[in-house]
Amino acid sequence: MEKRRILLVDDERDFIDCLAKRLQRRGIDCLCAYSGAEAVCKISEGGFDLVVLDMLLPDTNGNEVLRFIKQATPDMPVVILTGHASAACGRDSLDLGAVEYLLKPIELESLYEKLCSLQPGRESHNKGSPLSGI
Amino acid sequence: MYMATIPAEMMEQKPRSAYYAGQKRLFVIVIIIVAVLPLVFINWKVSRLYQTSMMNKMDVDLSGFTQSRKEMIDLFLASQENMLASFTEFYDLAWLGKKENIENIFCAVNRSGVMTDIGVIDAAGNHVAYVGPFTEKLAGKNYASAPWFRKVMQNGRYVSDVFTGYRGIPHLVVAVADKEKSWVLRATINSEMFNGLVSSANVGPDGDAFIISRAGEFQTPSRLGHQNISPGNLAVLRDIGAGGTKTQRRGQYLFSVAPLKGDDWLLVLKTDIHSSLADFYEAKNIGLTIIFCTALLILFVTQLLIRSLVNRIDHTEQQRMVLTNKVREVEKMALIGRLAASVAHEINNPLQVISAQAGWVDELLDDGPEKYAENESEYRLAVKKIRDQVKRAGSITKRLLSFSRMQEGAPAAVDINHTVEDSILLLEKEAKSNRINITRQYQQDLPAVKTDASQLQQVFLNILNNAVDAIGQDGAIEVRTTRRDGEIVIEFADTGPGIAEHIMENIFNPFFTTKEKGKGTGLGLAISSNIMQRLRGGLRVANRPHGGCLFTVALPANGQPAVQNRPGVN
User: Fold this and answer.
1) What is residue B245's three-state secondary structure?
2) Fewest 10 Å CB contacts: which of B81, B322, B476, B562?
3) Is A39 within a domain?
4) CATH number assigned to the domain covering B91-193
5) Chain A residues lying within 8 Å of B385, measured CB to CB
6) A104, B342: Cβ pair inside 8 Å?
7) What's the CA gap between B241 and B256, in Å, rounded?
8) d(Cα B385, Cα A15) in Å, to the nearest integer?
9) Do A14 and B434 touch (CB under 8 A)?
10) In chain A, how many domains are there?
11) Where are the domains of chain B?
12) Which tens digits make up the pLDDT trace of B499-548?
């Protein structure tokens, strides 16, 4: 099965760099974006099955990026992973189409399970198949 | 520019007991002014009027009395003179010189005892005949050299001053010569009767009445027993009596003086005003005593009422302060609640990094001992990152604890820049994600201020939180600290919509909020202003000329009150 490609958006480099390394060991191809602008850029280039998105970014907030993703690729599953524990913000994200609103800190295994359970959003992928082979 | 004012807070700056003692004093003064002073004034005024009218009456009475006495005495002396004159006309020396004749006449005219004796003296001054009690002393005496005899031989009629003469007893004589001045009929006036004309004058208990000659000799005895009169006093009496009956007040006495016997004598009536007004003074004292007692009663009752009232107010105020303190703490917790999302972010992120790095080390260890050496640099890097994040999380919890401390700590020297920066750090991440840029301009050499950092931070966080809420997205907050006119001034300028003029005056009122329901308690700014008053500083707000608003927090640099009441809009 084709390798999944995930975009990790967070300004905590020490976290997503490490996360990327660990997910890669589990067979997921990860790309990191450290700001909203960088994320938008990378999403525009396309080729992702899933986006893991932080809420508080140095140049914008996660919901703005989410809004852009949903406009560009409406089917793209977006998981919000943030330390910002705001119920209102979480509601907004789910309204905008996020599939999950996860609160930091989260163990990698739990995150990995979530990611595996999600349907990939890329057109080229076979819909319905789980993230397998990782 | 609007200033927050919560008057009750003034009491916290001043010891409450002193404040209430001041209030009590004020009440008592007001009661004295309103209730007691009018009583005293009325009593004083009535007394004055009454005293003046009493004085005028005494003046008129004494004057009239003196005048009537003068007329009576003048008439008495004139009638004695006239009687003697008529005898000199009807009889001659030969007839009157006979003892039985003069005795008959004396008995006939002296039934009332006005005269002590009567005598007939010839032109040479020889005592020809005498009827009276001093026969032995006066028989055969010659009066040629007596002053009264010379006067009567010269003028035809004469009333003498009091003198001692041959009889050795003070007396006064009335003498009349016949037409040819060839003999003289002389009568001695009964001193007791004459003195009675004067001493019976009604001059009050301590008053005096007497007749005095121009030379200062008492013609009738002073009721008060005076024997002599000083030349000064005599001059005064002469002065008063010059030109007719007159009355004059001198010191505590009222003098009425009338000239008698031509101008030879002065009839003096003197009344002691104080003893004459004794009844009046007694009435006045009773009045004053009643007023004094009434005033005491009023003061006593007022004190009781005020004390009970003030105690109640004090009690209510204490309850209010307890509530205020509670509300302040609750609002602080609510503020932490409002900041919870940001705070959680600040803690959760380091935890997430720690978790990820630890997991990474775990995974590498799972690769087996043969890989340890190869992975050593990864381990070390992960451990370093974990340590960094622990430090980061530690600093945020410390910041949070110092802010949420429940007890009010004793004022300590506080670095204002540090406190402002701590507040900003709690919010900056969230602000940034909403593209709100927070810029700082700290004056570096600010003196430390003795104040409560926790409460100050509550104020800063409130203002910053409001600014972030007001801007929403895309904007800037400028934070500036400076020292100005003995104050340390912290300014928070935002690029939000500013505050509408019509709500400007309400923004410091409790429960006033423009935020949507559930987002704000409406207590943030009310409590912030309350805190700033407690810290003897001030909190002002104004709209900026080009949009947004400017909150200014001022603290006294030397512990003295800093911000004056300067309301108005910039």
Assistant:
1) coil
2) B322
3) yes
4) 3.30.450.20
5) 14
6) no
7) 8
8) 10
9) no
10) 1
11) 91-193, 330-556
12) 888 888 888 877 777 777 666 667 788 888 888 888 889 999 999 998 89
